[in-house]
Design brief:
Radius of gyration of chain A: 25 Å
Strand order of the largest sheet of chain A: 1-7-6-5-4-2-3
Distance between the termini of chain B: 63 Å
Helix content of chain B: 25-40%
Structural class of chain A: alpha/beta
Oligomer: heterodimer
Shape of chain B: globular
Largest interface: A-B, 202 and 206 residues
Number of helices of chain A: 15
CATH architecture of the largest domain in chain B: 3-Layer(aba) Sandwich
CATH topology of the largest domain in chain A: Aspartate Aminotransferase, domain 2
Largest sheet of chain A: 7 strands, mixed
Helix content of chain A: 25-40%
Number of strands of chain B: 14
Distance between the termini of chain A: 25 Å
Shape of chain A: globular
Order of helices and strands of chain B: HHEHHHEHEHEHEHEEEEEHHEHEEEH
Largest sheet of chain B: 7 strands, mixed
Number of strands of chain A: 13
Radius of gyration of chain B: 25 Å
Number of domains of chain B: 2
Chain lengths: 483, 448
């Protein structure tokens, strides 16, 4: 198999003239700039177009993707990405507009953002949204900075943020970037927030609690209203990490659960493609208390015209250049229109149905970490398999041989040998049954031929990759041979 | 229902397996107080045909840039994109894959990102590139945070003309800390006022951050700025347009420690400003303080070459509150696009692209200089944009706009002291005819 990197395929090909030579005189850079500021060599490869097409199409064939494989990756909501959304996001009127064009030239883009804001406000119960944050973690940063400024403006001295031990790593990392100390709260034996403990640790120094609901065990925080009361009673705010919002669409709203602000991952719940890890959008919605702190600009309607609004009293400022990952917003808007309120409810119900179905069918083979009825994802603990010689890691890798992307492994951190399975609503029962049977087969295989599981995958483009070596001897870029 | 494949019978059977009598029962653990008792007040589902009509109509309310003779740049540039690029990017196995945490079924993604990292290191002459950040402004902010961690100092110098939205972003990113940001205004020549920097820099300065080309399009004396930064043990951070590095000396050889910027000029569309991607390249000493994902080349268990995400102990999913950044999702697809774009156009194409943009810009510069009533305050040492001034700039911009010409970015929007300043940009897409038409129309407006 051809494994060369593109640089080793340099043919010194003649240039492919994608660009028209200007009619104006070509500048003599040596006459304009001091010689010491000019580059003397540009060691990039020159290839023909077909060479490049073959190279990258070949690379694409080495990957699993939602369009080609079942992808039950917990907390990532790898649902099908509808193709109409791609079509619409690529319309000339959306891709070919400059962020500094006059607002009358981008009226349609502003209207789309305005409409999307109205839809998301209804879905979440929030009052306003900012569309700048370009990933979930970016949304968290926006949200926590708003919380910080909210307290500062009120003259509150707050130093801590409470985060459950089951939380996504981005939560503590973000709170720390906002200058807060992290107070971790342990989950109780049901996998939920222990309200007794929360009462013990809560005090006036707590700025906020960051919660995912359902949490990363796939469980709904049943005491959410009590949690809300406890935190609010001490002047703290409730931050909703929307990574797991999919099963609750049309069932409840973060506002009803007492949350003051919400980030939504449009690349999870609202079907925009993950693109190997981005671009996404982590848009943030706020209730009344935080409206004055939103990043600028917002979009407003002035009579019948749409324009940017920079007048936000205590705005935290700007999170990036321009207005966010606009192309992602177009896709999410099309998705919500297509499904409608009725469709979103079906999305939620079917995502929960699928996860519970897998849980029921596998619970006699793989121990469920916390046995309560789950929402959109279920966490198994592979300790019995580990005792028989194969870890969660081994099982995950063996799934690749069956064309199934591994579930999220070793997360949440509080579950030993965790495999976190999120099937999503877009997978058919037949696919779920195939996954279930494969998992059962692997469980049997561990007893019969453990070595086969431990040395998997066998059918992937490479065998198990040595990640320890990669970290110990970092090779992070191509070097010219002989250098 | 669109995108849901389960039939009624499937649902029934699955419910039976679970032991639930209805879909509603799946939510029995939710307190009734939080449950919606009325459906969401949203329109009902629509056919694909209807959705297409609605969204397309919105898109048609916009006026794409090509309807105008536009000289807008200021951080987002209108370059020609070869047809092969969107073709490759539309491959599902790039478009609909997740972050390549599972190396064995993601080798193509990983190799493409490794190639991206290599391209960026070659362009900047640095040792390490991460796998992308969200955009140029957040990349700059992450670069500054990185310098504060490395030096354990408290102060950052922002020197010379830097994109105002990037500066605003940095202030936001740093607002949770007690760091000090000190700005050193550009001198009368539009360049960094080096003497002022020498006065401002001290032993508590973590880094000295400048832009080259700077916000006014001018190329700075990168080497000397790095020397000044190092004189007090501070890091030298350079914000740049990566396309300009086809012409200008690679920053790594000029003493820069961290290079960052927005990758949009490398094959990105305008996209109303996003998505594009941020890049960050650093010297190897700083590898462990670098934010974001990075791909490494290694072996599989049989000794074959293989790739994986590596050095993850810096990242939030391992290190949590002690991570180098909270970043998780980045702009992978846009970074991969840059690698494909650079492969397609190659070294000759990239040189052409930079030189053609620069030539058009120089031509416009010289032509505008001849127009009475136009003042060009700075030297022609510019890459693809420059500042010019005229009395009553907003009115002139408006007059030009009426004649279908977008003169450029009005700097006075953000900065009062530049109320007569316009930043105009030329890419390779500008024809001589368009440039002449701009200049002639302007002369007519100014002199009737």
């Amino acid at each position: 198999m051809d494994k060369k990197v593109i640089f080793d395929k340099d043919k010194n090909f003649q240039k492919s003239s994608y660009f028209k030579k200007p009619e104006v005189p070509l500048a003599k850079v040596e006459d304009i700039f001091p010689k010491r500021s000019l580059r003397s060599s540009l060691p990039l490869p020159n290839l023909g177009e077909l060479d490049v097409i073959r190279h990258y199409l070949h690379l694409s064939e080495l990957n699993f993707s939602v369009d080609t494989n079942f992808y039950p990756l917990g907390s990532c909501t790898m649902k099908y990405n509808p193709k109409i959304n791609e079509d619409l996001a690529h319309l000339d009127g959306f891709t070919n507009i400059h962020p500094f064009q006059d607002s009358q030239d981008v009226e349609g883009a502003l209207e789309l953002i305005y409409n999307l804001e109205e839809l998301l406000c209804e879905i979440t119960g929030m009052k306003r949204f900012t569309f700048q944050p370009s990933s979930g973690a970016h949304g968290e940063l926006a949200g926590m900075l708003m919380i910080r400024k909210f307290h500062e403006t009120k003259g509150n001295i707050k130093t801590k943020v409470i985060i459950p031990d089951s939380a996504h790593g981005t939560n503590p990392a973000t709170a720390s970037m906002c200058g807060y100390q992290i107070q971790v709260i342990e989950s109780n034996s049901d996998g939920l927030i222990d309200t007794g403990k929360l009462r013990e640790i809560i005090d006036d120094s707590v700025a906020a609690i960051m919660l995912t609901n359902p949490n990363t065990l796939g469980l709904f925080e049943e005491d959410i209203l009590t949690i809300s009361d406890i935190v609010h009673s001490k002047g703290g705010l409730l931050y909703y990490d929307g990574a797991n919002f999919n099963p609750l669409l049309g069932i409840t709203k973060p506002s009803l659960m007492g949350f003051d602000l919400v980030h939504l991952n449009l690349h999870k719940t609202f079907s925009t493609p993950h693109g190997c890890g981005g671009p996404g959008a982590g848009v943030v919605g706020v209730g009344e208390a935080l409206e004055d702190f939103l990043p600028v600009p917002l979009v407003k309607k002035d009579q019948d015209k749409f324009c940017f609004d920079y007048e936000v009293r205590h705005s935290i400022g700007r999170l990036r250049s321009f207005y966010g990952n606009f192309g992602v917003l177009v896709r999410a808007y099309a998705y919500i229109l297509r499904l409608g309120g009725d469709g979103l409810l079906r999305v939620a119900q079917n995502s929960t149905l699928s996860a519970n179905y897998i849980k029921e069918k596998l619970k006699n083979y793989y121990q469920v970490a916390f046995p309560k009825k789950c929402m959109h994802e279920v966490v198994f603990t592979c300790q019995s398999q580990k005792e028989r010689g194969a870890s969660a890691f081994d099982i995950a890798k063996r799934l690749i041989d069956f064309g199934i992307h591994p579930p999220t492994m070793y997360f949440p951190l509080i579950v030993k040998e965790a495999l976190m399975v999120e099937p999503t609503e877009t997978e058919s029962k037949q696919t779920l049954d195939y996954f279930i049977q494969t998992m059962i087969d692997i469980d049997k295989e561990i007893s019969l031929d453990c070595e086969k599981v431990k040395t998997s995958p066998h059918l992937a483009p490479v065998k198990r990759v040595d990640e320890v070596k990669a970290a110990r001897f970092p090779n992070l870029k191509w070097e010219k041979p002989g250098v | 229902m669109p995108y849901i494949l389960n039939t009624k019978e499937d649902v029934k059977e699955m419910l039976r397996a679970i032991g639930a009598s209805s879909l509603e029962e799946l939510y029995s653990l939710l307190p009734s107080k939080v449950k919606l008792d009325v459906p969401l007040n949203l329109p009902t589902s629509k056919s694909e045909q209807e959705v297409k009509r609605i969204v397309k109509e919105l898109s048609e309310k916009n006026n794409p840039i090509e309807k105008y003779n536009s000289f807008l740049g200021a951080g987002c540039y209108d370059h020609y994109i070869p047809a092969a690029l969107p073709f490759i990017l539309s491959r599902s196995q790039f478009l609909t894959a997740y972050t390549p945490y599972q190396a064995e079924c993601s080798q193509g993604i990983l190799q493409a990102i490794y190639e991206y990292q290599s391209f960026l290191c070659l362009l900047t002459d640095m040792d390490v590139s991460n796998a992308s950040l969200l955009d140029g402004a957040s990349a700059l902010s992450e670069a500054v945070l990185m310098s504060l961690r490395i030096t354990k100092r408290k102060k950052v110098l922002l020197v010379g003309a830097i994109h105002p939205e990037y500066k605003e972003t940095l202030y936001t990113y740093l607002s949770g800390f007690d760091f000090i940001i000190q700005e050193v205004e550009p001198g009368d020549d539009g360049l960094v006022d080096k003497e002022a920097v020498k006065r401002a820099i001290d032993d508590d300065t973590a880094s000295c951050l400048f832009s080259s080309p700077n916000f006014f399009g001018l190329v700075e004396d990168v080497n000397e700025l790095s020397v000044i930064a190092k004189s007090r043990g501070s890091l030298s951070i350079m914000l740049t347009n990566p396309l300009s590095l086809a012409v200008f000396k690679e920053p790594g050889s000029l003493g820069v420690d961290i290079v960052c910027g927005d990758g949009q000029p490398l094959g990105g569309g305008l996209n109303f400003g996003g998505p594009s991607f941020g890049f960050l390249t650093v010297k190897k000493d700083y590898l462990r303080q670098m934010p974001g994902r990075v791909v490494g080349k290694t072996k599989d268990r049989e000794g074959n070459e293989a790739y994986c995400l590596t050095l993850q102990a810096r990242e939030q999913h391992i290190r949590r509150e002690k991570a180098t950044s909270n970043i998780c999702s980045n702009q992978s697809l846009n970074a991969i696009a840059a690698a494909i774009y650079l492969s397609l156009i190659g070294r000759d194409g990239l040189k052409d692209l930079a030189l053609y943009s620069l030539s058009n810009t120089q031509y416009l510069y010289q032509r505008l200089k001849e127009v009475r009533g136009v003042r060009i305050p700075y030297s022609p040492c510019v890459f693809n944009e420059f500042v010019w001034e005229t009395e009553d700039a907003p009115r002139i911009i408006e007059e030009l706009y009426k004649k279908n010409i977008i003169a450029g970015y009005y700097i006075g929007v953000k900065l009062d002291q530049y109320k007569n300043s316009i930043l105009s940009c030329c890419t390779e897409k500008k024809s001589k005819e368009e440039i002449d038409s701009f200049v002639n129309t302007l002369a007519e407006i100014l002199h009737g």
